[in-house]
TrEMBL record:
It comes from the Archaea. PANTHER family: OXIDOREDUCTASE YYAE-RELATED, TRIMETHYLAMINE-N-OXIDE REDUCTASE. This is Molybdopterin oxidoreductase, molybdopterin-binding subunit. Residues 1-53 form the 4Fe-4S Mo/W bis-MGD-type domain. Belongs to the prokaryotic molybdopterin-containing oxidoreductase family.
Length: 636
């Protein structure tokens, strides 16, 4: 039976075994894969429903009405591809190659299908994205302290006693990781604003006010240092700037920390003493760092495992293989103009983007401040092409829509940003659409490009990537996955040590130590928009239909506004307003409300991103700050 690999933007990157039985796709988890361990998450188990979905795009569409009106006419592949090629050529001739932007993200993480289309845009010297939507601030922060955001191999958890899930709802977003920690009988703690399903299954839960994590982590460091509970030998040998850091944290006033974080002194002490004793490791989440204080928080948190003697005692990112061949940046003849992903609307408003090619992403659901983005697209002359499996909101706003196939319909391989395995994905069945690489080859041909790199087959690209990385095709074929061995490594900081005093941060005009800024907004309630159990950002809303669009609110906040459970309310701020029903819950603290992230606006009439802030964490790579959104709520 063919091996599949779940290509979703998800930590677990499962290896699966698939087949077609009586015309229906059947999937199961690969029992030999050490992370998948033969079971799938609830979303993965429903993949056949996604694959067979009635609403999959079947033929190319060309806009036949006002932008966003949803009026299209059907077209042949030849007509659609020729139109895209002609428009591309015209735009480049009239405005230059940098007026073309390829906008893509991790809708499909297959090495070929993620990267191959970029070859065409590199060849054409177009503008490219500077990715900032997901985990950027934390990436920069970890580089400040460790010189890399690549942490520990999660399979090494078997040697640990304690894992802290800090700002990650692992039971929903990293189920196989959570089960791995359970399997190895680790003690599990959670630090979160919300009493999540992970918090409910943890041995300890520290409920913290938004954006105050930096203070909590610094207070824990202070107590560990003051009480001499840190690993002195490790710190002496491997840490740069310990003395300066010590002088900095020692001044911290614990009463202030208590007031800001909402944690009691006992909780802070309990964390510090127990963490030091058990030499905890920390899974630093992606979710919580998407706020204005996210970068500073990750810097502070990442110091804690080093204090107790871990070389790379955090989980954040994993980079096992070199994938650059698939992307082919070597095809460029001049350096790329990089457009910060979170500033798409701004660049469109400035008239710098005239042609937008979108694949693997649904920015008209997932980007913040949707009213501004949509206005910018309507008011400016931008030709939009979207390649997707479904008629998403982004597709609805496009001039040309190209049907994509799914990973069940092609060959690819995929790595993981969580574990060290590369998985094989073989074609199982064929329904509709074309792959990202196939469309690239058709476009290259229509543009009259002769460069052979644009016509390499998927298998050739895969073979070459495996060869570059010294990985065995034979082993991959036999098991469905291979583990990439870890080489011994040092910290890639200026001092070659773990920098508690970060020189890299000072070069960006930041303090050498993590700093706290009290979060402030011009509306009374902080709006969080974390992940939903049954979606991957905007995906599966249309196919699984299991979503929860309610606003979660603390009963005290509701009482102040005379709102009862089940009431219809308006949630509003300067960016927009939406209407939904309220669920009262003590799981969210007073002062915080919650709407799950990025459903399909075309199905719901709205999503949370009509409210979210498009500010960026400027000093941390212009990372997104979705959670730095303030709103008010009234009964309607
Ligand atoms: N089921 C499911 N799984 C997914 C996804 C999905 O949409 N659904 N998306 C995938 C993607 S793209 C990503 S990036 C990952 C994200 O994976 P996670 O990081 O687990 O995702 P989030 O739910 O966004 O955020 C985690 C938690 O951060 C908390 N949080 C918010 N602000 C703060 C704060 O200031 N401090 C603290 N301590 N906590 C805070 C939220 O309450 C939330 O519970 O998941 C991937 N997996
Ligand atoms: N409010 C709020 N918004 C958020 C977040 C948040 O925490 N709060 N989280 C942010 C995060 S972490 C992320 S990573 C982004 C993700 O945002 P996006 O990158 O927009 O991710 P998805 O919604 O998963 O959209 C992926 C699209 O790719 C399509 N697709 C899947 N497979 C293929 C394929 O093989 N080929 C092609 N051509 N298309 C395919 C899917 O159908 C889907 O429409 O969202 C961000 N948005
Ligand atoms: Mo993400």
């Amino acid at each position: 039976m063919p091996f599949s690999a779940c290509m979703r933007d998800c930590y677990d990157t499962c290896s699966m075994i698939s087949e077609v039985k009586n015309g229906r796709l059947v999937v199961k988890g690969n029992p030999r894969h050490p992370i998948t361990e033969g079971f799938l998450c609830p979303k993965g188990a429903l993949l056949p429903k996604w694959f067979h979905a009635e609403d999959r795009l079947k033929v190319p569409l060309i806009r036949a009405g006002e932008r966003g009106s949803g009026k299209f006419r059907e077209a042949s592949w030849a007509e659609a591809i020729n139109l895209v090629a002609q428009k591309l050529r015209e735009t480049i001739d009239e405005y230059g190659s940098e007026s073309v932007l390829v906008y893509q993200y991790a809708g499909d993480r297959g090495i070929v299908n993620y990267a191959f289309p970029l070859r065409l845009f590199h060849y054409l010297n177009t503008a490219m994205l500077d990715y900032g939507i997901c985990d950027r601030a934390g990436q920069e922060a970890l580089r400040d302290v460790y010189g890399t955001a690549v942490g520990m191999d999660p399979e090494e958890l078997k040697r640990q006693k304690l894992i802290v899930y800090w700002g990650i709802n692992a039971f929903w977003t990293n189920l196989h990781g959570f089960m791995l920690a359970k399997k190895h009988s680790l003690e599990i703690w959670t630090v979160d604003v919300v009493r999540t399903e992970t918090a409910k299954r943890s041995d300890k839960f520290f409920q913290i006010m938004p954006d105050t994590d930096v203070l909590f982590a610094l207070a824990v460091a202070k107590l560990i240092i003051e009480n001499e509970l840190y690993d002195k030998d490790f710190v002496r040998e491997n840490v740069y700037g310990f003395k300066e850091f010590k002088n900095y944290v020692i001044k911290l006033d614990l009463d202030f920390v208590k007031r800001e974080t909402g944690l009691s002194c006992e909780e802070i002490e309990e964390f510090a003493f127990d963490f030091a004793e058990k030499k905890g490791v920390i899974h630093i989440g992606y979710g919580f760092q998407r706020s204005l204080g996210g970068g500073e928080a990750v810097r502070a948190i990442s110091i804690l495992p080093a204090l107790v003697g871990h070389r790379f005692g955090f989980i954040y990112d994993m980079k096992t293989i070199d994938k650059s061949y698939a992307e082919g940046a070597f095809l460029r003849t001049k350096p790329a103009k990089r457009i910060p992903q979170m500033k798409l609307a701004e660049y469109i408003e400035k008239g710098e983007i005239k042609f937008l090619y979108v694949y693997n992403s649904n920015p008209l659901a997932s980007l913040p401040n949707q009213n501004r983005l949509r206005r910018a697209l309507i008011e400016n002359d931008v030709f939009i092409v979207t390649h997707d499996i479904f008629l998403t909101d982004t597709a609805l706003f496009s001039d040309v829509v190209l049907p994509a196939n799914t990973f069940f319909e092609r060959l690819d391989i995929v790595d993981s940003y969580y574990h060290r395995h590369v998985a094989l994905n073989e074609p199982v069945a064929e329904l509709y659409g074309k792959s990202n690489s196939e469309v690239t080859r058709l476009l290259a041909k229509a543009l009259g490009i002769e460069n052979p790199h644009l016509y390499e087959s998927d298998e050739e690209v895969i073979q070459k990537v495996l060869e570059i990385n010294n990985l065995s095709w034979k082993e991959l074929k036999a098991k469905g996955f291979v583990k990439v061995p870890e080489k011994p490594r040092k910290w890639e900081t200026p001092s070659g040590k773990i920098e508690f005093y970060s020189r890299r941060a000072t070069e960006r005009g930041l303090s050498p130590f993590p700093e706290y800024k009290s979060p402030q907004g011009n509306y009374p309630l902080r709006l969080l928009s974390p992940t939903h159990r049954m979606t991957i950002t905007s995906q599966y809303h249309n196919t699984y239909g299991i979503i929860d669009p309610s606003l979660y609110m603390n009963p005290d906040d509701a009482e102040e506004r005379e709102i009862c459970d089940g009431d219809t309310v308006e949630v509003f701020n300067d960016n927009g307003r939406i209407k939904t029903t309220v669920k009262l819950s003590d799981d969210v603290p007073k002062g915080v409300v919650l709407l799950y992230k990025a459903f399909w606006p075309s199905l719901l009439g709205w999503n949370v991103n009509f409210l979210t802030s498009d500010e960026t964490v400027e000093k941390y790579g212009n990372g997104s700050a979705y959670h730095s959104t303030w709103v008010d709520v009234r009964k309607v």
